[in-house]
Amino acid sequence: MKGLKKFIAAAIAIGIVGGATGCQLISKTPEGEKKTVVAKVNNENITKGEFQKRWDSTLAQLEAMYGKEALQSAQAQEELKSQKSGLLDSMVMDKIMMQKAKELNVIPDENTLKQEIDKKIDEMIKLAGSKDNFKKFLDQVKLTEEDYREMAKTQIIFDKLEESLTKDVTVSDSEVKKYYDENKYEYTTEPNKMHVAHILVKDLALATKIKEEYDKGAKFEDLAKKYGTDGTKDSGGDLGEVPYVDSGFDQDFMDAAIKVSKGQVSQPVKTQFGYHLIKIIDKKEYPVKPFDSVKNEIKNKLLEEKKSSIIEQKETEWKNNSKIKKYEDRI
């Protein structure tokens, strides 16, 4: 959910979120530099010190994943600039979220917060295997246990904010049944798959001409090699075995391909890439699970989607109504 990080992800990507103070001018001394304001959000500041702590942690993770040398290339340096800008945007949104949590009075009392933070720390120690391993992880990402406790506190407060905004969200049985009827391919006993080939061209007239040649007896593979414009042309347009769900292919392409029978070739299909002729070499389709066996799964899916939508709408609304000033040249 946009702006609401999962706890483990937060451990990697975010540092301390707290009240920000600092002078309005850029200071030359190390301590003054930390107080330099890099963003103002509704009259609250985000300082360079706060930003740098989170950036150092993020950079440590990137170095662990890719190695320091890999981050030295010109391309990597440009990407890091983009990452810095994105991190500042994230910190601005976090500041807005915390302000709204205070405004809506959803922040738990200190005793409750401490109990929940302790629980999350215990969970992380268990996940790491030992307290020493947890400490090593924190060292690797340049965080202290106190930093981590602050992150846990922030996440708990954000979770409470989310709950307050979505507590009245419901999903009706009719909505669940409608989704099931319209998306049965998501609920087969095994994933449906099809072996697909295609010919991609830029215009409808050419696609129609190629289909006419195929109907007159030309081989699909030969036509793909002759007319195809993508990387599959030399293999006869073969795309391999493609799952019906989460294929990664253009949805217009998939919707059309599913309707084509085994051994048949479609009429021209328009997508964002051009016009396709789609051949189904083979299909493997399985029975659909009974509605009652997947009803709760669908209901939970739709419930989470509704909640996510509400949160995203609220974030956009809050951001648009906030006074935000960023000084990206200072980060």
From TrEMBL:
Molecular function terms from GO: peptidyl-prolyl cis-trans isomerase activity
Q: Tell me yes or no: is Signal among this UniProt entry's keywords.
A: yes
The protein's UniProt keywords, in alphabetical order, are: Isomerase, Rotamase, Signal
Q: Catalytic activity annotated for this protein?
A: [protein]-peptidylproline (omega=180) = [protein]-peptidylproline (omega=0)
Q: What is its EC number?
A: 5.2.1.8
Domain (PpiC) ranges = 191-282
Pfam families for the chain: Rotamase_2, SurA_N_3
- InterPro entries on file: PPIase_dom_sf, PPIase_PpiC, PrsA_foldase, Trigger_fact/SurA_dom_sf
Signal peptide boundaries: none
- The residues that cross the membrane are none
Keyword Protein biosynthesis found: no
Q: Which PANTHER family match?
A: FOLDASE PROTEIN PRSA, PEPTIDYLPROLYL ISOMERASE
Q: What is this protein called?
A: peptidylprolyl isomerase
Task: Record the organism.
Answer: Fervidicella metallireducens AeB
Q: What is the lineage of its organism?
A: Bacteria, Bacillati, Bacillota, Clostridia, Eubacteriales
The gene behind this protein is prsA
